Amino acid sequence: MDDKIENKAEELKGQVKEGAGKATDDHELEAEGRADQASGNLKQAGEKAKDAVKNVFKK
């Protein structure tokens, strides 16, 4: 459960960075925010895949 929370927090942090970058016209910060979001999303997908595998073997 902790990994899922951390991954979601990383995604949200990326959204904040992207928004701040757009607001301040800081393209580097904006890109960093998008990268953080992508990383968080990828990690969340991995967690979902692990959960799916666990559910298959529980049956």
Description:
- With 59 residues, the protein is mainly alpha-helical.
- Helix content is 93%, strand content 0%.
- The chain contains 2 helices and no strands.
- Helix 1 (2-24) runs antiparallel to helix 2.
- The protein is rod-shaped, with a radius of gyration of 15 Å.
Task: Outline the fold blueprint.
Elements: H1 2-24, H2 27-58
Helix pairs in contact: 1-2
What is the average per-residue confidence, as pLDDT, rounded to a whole number? 92
Largest sheet: none
Q: Output the helix-strand order.
A: HH
> What is the share of helical residues?
over 70%
User: How far from one another are the termini?
Assistant: 21 Å
Based on secondary structure, the structural category is mainly alpha
The count of β-strands is: 0
Using only C-alpha atoms, the radius of gyration works out to: 15 Å
Uncertain spans, ≥5 residues at pLDDT below 50? Answer: none
| Morphology | rod-shaped
Number of helices: 2
Q: Strand portion, in percent? A: under 5%
